[in-house]
Amino acid sequence: MSEHNLIYAAAGIAVLLLAYIFIRRGWLGAAPAEGSRFAELGEKVRLRDLFRLAVMVEEKGRDYYLKMAGKSVRPETKALCAGLAEDEALHREQLLEKLGKWRPLEVNPLTWPVFVEKAKEQGFFDSDPGEDASEDQMAEFAIRQEVKSAEFYQLFEAAFPIAWKRARLHKIVTDERTHEAKLRAAYPHIR
Question: Which of 46, 147, 158, 165 has its CA 20 to 30 A from that of 124?
Answer without folding.
Answer: 165
